[in-house]
Design goal:
The structure holds two protein chains of two kinds. By secondary structure, chain A is mostly helical. Chain A contains twelve helices and two strands. Chain B is mainly alpha-helical. Chain B is built from 14 helices and no strands. Classes of the chains: A mainly alpha, B mainly alpha. Chain A: Keywords: Cell membrane, Membrane, Transmembrane, Transmembrane helix, Transport.
């Protein structure tokens, strides 16, 4: 543990640096795009009054002072008012955040609950036709872009079979500031297609990962020794092999939560799911700077935190890694 | 000067071809059926797309050539379809097959351009990082670490969003495609940079590099002429896999409405526009571009997988 502390400090420093760079980009977006006074007052207000307001708002201060003020506001969740929706960005995010988090949660549960057993099965019974079918299906799953999956599911389940809704969240129940779709029948029905769409790619990824890790573990000496001892297959597979398979799977799954949030942007657009991702895409289309820059800062913060936690976990779980840096790649296809 | 027998001359000319045909790489290719099928598919799609002007049965940009009376026709084999429009028509009466051919052309061009941009940036930074070392190396590699912790799609989306934020809205239509190429390229450079840097770190200590330095070659000459060629085979593999990702990113961003402008047919915009008609039963406008996208990406990916195994004997 003695080597963990400097490493943690190093990563923390790196995280703070990343946040400062992102905050600076986000700040430059604000300062670059037009004069906020024009947005507030319009054209026909007298120049001395403009100058007075500019002075009062601190727009004449030097750039470093304004940047520090921007960071101070950002830390308190102050990003100004959305140009398009005319309500404070913080309030807008508060309304949209539960939708995205519920979608991501449901997708993660589906991906893990199906991906791990399928991967273990495909590894244990690797020569059976059923395992090979799983392998081929996973290749297709990994090649299907998220939005194509979504369109396909909408065509089959909403248009042809008319079973499930193709857009929106259904009815939601407010629990304080959190609005949930988990408690109503229409909310749950609306969740099915987006959650499956979002989960599918991660599911195939987890399945392939579990399969290859498991195959690796099954080749090791201690498994061979367990077989030599005459232990039953069930015990070898589920007591000895699966446990060691799950260590890397847990850490990589942690990283994949970040990637779920990124892919949620696509899923939300396909299903018009009123979450953060849809908000961001609309903000980009309408050049709604406050929303864009706030999303930029928030998503960067989210990824920095996830990567920090996963890195610490890696080092805590696997002492061989101390001294090296993991890349923590969340690569994948949309 | 010796007089040459015509047959001997032909044999001499063919010798490099024969040598290539017998090389390990081509041998592996000939004996990997999925690689042959994938390459054939990719080439067929690429050639058709590049010759769109001559191959496509109709011109989707020529307003006079399509007729509103031909709109919403299903594919030829479905009842109500017309043999003139094999894959049917969209709501404006444009031929879906022609749209797809033109769409594939734009998608491939954007994909290739982003790969070239990412490759030049990544290989350049990797070479610089590995050859110069010191703080340059530290800066480039820490940036790469940070970049890798974000998924490619998110990087492309954010870069694209920020670029749009900085540019005046009235310019968005004209510069959408360069912005798209820039943002996709920015999401892919890291893999090149890391790989090239790793190889350069090993190569620069070798004797041939020392020899070149002693002879008096300048630093950049040694790096570009002597070290760079040794990085080419892994870079080819990365570029192939990167092409699949780039095509997919183009389609995704265009589908989200922040990529290619909706007036230009690319596979992504076609799928986006088509998906809006899907609710009125017109499935073919979105189905065929989706199918082509999936086939193209799968074929390029399989080709990349094969190339990686064939060029890296350690993996076998």
């Amino acid at each position: 543990m003695t080597r963990l502390l400097p490493f943690m400090l190093y990563r923390l420093g790196q995280g703070v640096l990343v946040m400062l760079v992102v905050a600076f980009i986000s700040f430059s977006l604000f300062t670059h795009v037009g004069d906020p006074i024009n947005n507030m007052l319009g054209e026909e207000v007298d120049e001395t009054y403009r100058e007075q307001l500019r002075e009062d708002l601190g727009l004449n201060d030097p750039v470093p002072v304004r940047f520090i003020r921007f960071v101070g506001n950002a830390v308190q969740g102050e990003f100004g008012v959305s140009y398009r929706n005319s309500i404070p960005v913080a309030q807008l995010f508060g309304e949209r955040l539960p939708a995205t988090l519920e979608l991501v949660f449901a997708a993660a549960v589906i991906a893990l609950a199906l991906g791990i057993p399928a991967g273990v099965y495909a590894a244990i019974h690797r020569s059976r036709p059923s395992a090979q079918v799983i392998q081929i299906l996973s290749l297709i799953g990994i090649s299907l872009p998220t939005f194509v999956t979504g369109i396909l599911l909408i065509y089959v389940f909403s248009i042809s079979l008319d079973l499930l809704p193709s857009f929106g969240r259904g009815e939601v129940v407010d629990l304080g500031w959190w609005s949930t779709g988990f408690l109503t029948a229409s909310g749950l029905k609306a969740l099915v297609l987006p959650a499956v769409t979002l989960a599918l790619f991660q599911l195939t990824l987890i399945m392939r990962l579990v399969r290859s890790e498991m195959l690796e573990v099954l080749r090791t000496d201690y498994i061979r020794f367990a077989r030599a001892r005459g232990l039953p297959d069930r015990l070898i597979h589920f007591r000895h092999a699966v446990r060691n398979t799950l260590v890397p799977v847990i850490t990589i799954t942690g990283l994949q939560i970040g990637s779920l949030v990124a892919f949620a942007i696509i899923t939300e657009t396909v299903f018009q799911w009123p979450g953060m991702g849809l908000l961001f895409i609309q903000a980009v289309q309408f050049v709604d700077i406050p929303v864009m820059s706030a999303y930029l800062v928030l998503i960067a913060f989210f990824f920095v935190v996830i990567n920090f936690i996963v890195d610490i976990l890696y080092h805590a779980v696997d002492p061989r890694l101390s001294g090296t840096l993991s890349d923590g790649s969340g690569k994948g296809m949309p | 000067m010796t007089s040459q027998h015509p047959a001997g001359q032909a044999r001499r000319l063919l010798r490099p071809v024969a040598r290539l045909w017998q090389s390990d790489l081509v041998w592996s290719f000939r004996n990997t059926p999925y690689a042959v099928v994938s390459l054939a598919l990719v080439l067929a799609i690429a050639v058709t797309a590049l010759c769109a002007h001559w191959v496509a049965p109709h011109d989707p940009f020529d307003l006079a050539s399509f007729n509103i009376l031909d709109s919403e026709l299903p594919p030829a084999w479905v009842e109500g379809g017309s043999p003139e429009f094999i894959l049917g028509t969209d709501t404006q009466g444009r031929d879906v097959l022609s749209l797809i051919i033109y769409g594939a052309r734009l998608s491939l061009l954007v994909g290739l351009a982003s790969v070239v941009f990412g490759l030049v940036l990544g290989v350049g930074l990797g070479l610089l990082s590995g050859y110069v070392g010191g703080w340059v190396d530290a800066l480039v590699m820490r940036t790469a670490d940070v970049k890798l912790s974000f998924p490619a799609i998110l990087v492309a989306l954010l870069v694209n969003g920020v670029a749009r934020g900085f540019l005046p809205p009235e310019m968005h239509g004209q510069i959408a495609i360069p912005v798209l190429i820039f943002s996709i390229g920015m999401s892919g450079w890291v893999h090149y940079a890391r790989t090239v840097r790793g190889i350069v770190m090993v190569e620069r200590r070798k004797e041939y590099v020392l020899a070149a330095q002693i002879v008096g070659r300048k630093g950049w000459e040694v790096a570009l002429l002597h070290v760079l060629p040794n990085t080419m085979s892994p870079v080819t593999v990365i570029a192939t896999i990167n092409l699949a990702t780039a095509i997919l990113l183009e389609a995704t961003l265009s589908f989200l409405g922040v990529g290619v402008p909706p007036t230009e047919p690319s596979l992504g915009t076609l799928i986006k526009v088509g998906s809006e008609y899907m609710f009125s039963g017109i499935w073919w406008v979105t189905a065929f571009p989706s199918l082509l996208l999936v086939v193209l990406v799968l074929a390029v990916n399989l080709l990349g997988d094969w190339l990686r195994d064939a060029l890296n004997p350690n993996l076998q």
